[in-house]
Structure formats: structure tokens, C-alpha cells
Specification:
Strand 1 and strand 2 (57-66) form a beta hairpin. This protein has one domain (5-70, 80-224). It contains eight helices and six strands. The radius of gyration is 18 Å and the shape is globular. With 227 residues, it is of the alpha+beta class. The protein has a six-stranded antiparallel sheet, covered by helices on one side. It has helices at 5-20, 26-43, 99-105, 147-153, 156-162, 190-203, 210-215, 217-224; strands at 48-51, 57-66, 115-125, 130-139, 170-174, 181-185.
Length: 227
């Protein structure tokens, strides 16, 4: 089942206001988050809401991602623990949204497969009026990945898309709510990352039910692609 033309028209008209022009206010962001959490509970895919003082909070998900065989922070030649690893196969910036695939990533503690622990936060930025993705990754012995290692772990499709301007796409800064170092996808590059995800959801009929466009609309459609 595919999205009908009139439904796609609604999306086309609405996204420039909500995504391209970044006119998503905090109240709408929180409302979308509640819808996402409801859906996440149905899928059991691990998203939660971390509440802080007042109405402040953020979406959070922690998951394990497998690494290629032979990956390790130290290789022959005495490289330091900060040496670059081989590229990861999974895409750490976009969740699959599949219950089966996510379940496969919840590896048992006694698994022999090398893994990294990824932590994702989706926050609302008042300055940019848009959601912002913050994330970090650790080896199982607690070592944080460097920026170079983060870039090595990004899916090749996104790496090629941003190879001409890596420094202003993914960088490290203090988490605005936690005060801890996190990597983040710069808000100015959000549309470039999310555009293909939005289109893929349309192409696969993910939001084909007419009631979606009447009752929940493209605002949720945009934000839900973060999950």
C-alpha cells in the first residue's frame, strides 16, 4: 500500500513549515514525543523520555551495535587506544525502526561478537527551533570513541554525502541539559540527513493510513523518523 497523492501533497505543504523553515515549537515537539513513545511501547524498541526540571527533557535510547570481526582499539604496531577502528556496518545515526532488527542488536553479555554501546538523545533546540540529535559511543570496557572513530562508524551513504564538510556536520560539544561531552548532528545539516529517511518512509507506504494525515499529520511523520 502506497501513500496517496493527496496525502503526499499534505506532507509537501507541511514540511517546509515544520522542517525546512524549522517552525517546530517546543510544545509541538513534546506532543510528537508523546506519540513516538506510545509507538515505541508498541514496538518495544527502547525509546524513553528522560525528564528534568519543569517541562525539560529529551528522548533517549541505548543500544548495542556489532562491529566487524577483528576490530579493536589496538592493532599491530602499538597503536594507541585512540586509533581509528574499521568502519561499522550498522548506521548509528538512524534507527531501523524494526523490532526484529533491534532485538538482534540487544546482544547477550556473554556474546563473543565485538560490540559498541551507542546512546542517542533527541533534544529540542530553542535556537534553531528543530530537534537535534546528540549521541555518544563506548567500547564495553568504557572507552569513549573519538571524533575520528565516530566518522569511521557512520554509514557510507551518509559519509559520502557529508565528506566535503565533515567538521560542521558532526562535532563534539557539551550536552545542553547534562553538561557532559556528546557528539551531535548540527541542526543546519538535519534536513540533509532526514530528507532521505522521510522519502524512504513515503516510498514504502509507512504512513499510508488516511487517518494519520488527519489526526497526527506530517509533524509526527518528521519527528518519528528519528526513531
Amino acid at each position: 500500500m502506497t501513500v496517496q497523492p493527496e496525502q503526499a501533497d499534505v506532507l509537501t505543504r507541511s514540511l517546509p513549515l515544520e522542517m525546512n523553515c524549522r517552525a517546530l515549537d517546543e510544545e509541538r515537539f513534546c506532543r510528537c514525543c508523546r506519540l513516538i513513545l506510545r509507538r515505541s511501547d508498541q514496538l518495544r524498541d527502547g525509546w524513553s523520555w528522560e525528564a528534568l526540571q519543569g517541562s525539560e527533557g529529551y528522548l533517549k535510547k541505548t543500544t548495542l551495535r556489532p562491529l566487524p570481526a577483528g576490530w579493536g582499539p589496538e592493532q599491530d604496531g602499538g597503536e594507541s587506544p585512540g586509533a581509528e577502528p574499521a568502519a561499522l556496518q550498522p548506521d548509528p545515526l538512524v534507527s531501523t525502526g524494526s523490532e526484529e532488527e533491534d532485538a538482534d542488536l540487544r546482544l547477550p553479555s556473554n556474546s563473543s561478537s565485538p560490540v559498541l554501546q551507542w546512546e542517542y538523545h533527541v533534544l529540542y533546540s530553542c535556537s534553531y527551533a528543530t530537534p537535534v540529535l546528540y549521541f555518544r559511543a563506548f567500547t564495553l570496557d568504557g572507552r569513549s570513541l573519538t571524533l575520528e572513530e565516530i566518522w569511521k562508524s557512520i554509514h557510507p551513504n551518509f559519509g559520502l554525502r557529508l565528506q566535503n564538510c565533515p567538521l560542521n556536520a558532526v562535532s563534539q560539544q557539551e550536552h545542553p541539559l547534562l553538561g557532559q561531552p556528546f557528539f551531535f548532528l548540527h541542526p543546519c545539516r538535519t534536513e540533509e540527513f532526514m530528507g532521505p529517511v522521510l522519502q524512504a518512509a513515503l516510498d514504502h507506504g509507512r504512513y499510508a493510513h488516511p487517518g494519520f494525515w488527519v489526526h497526527e499529520g506530517p509533524m509526527r511523520f518528521y519527528l518519528e523518523t528519528w526513531t
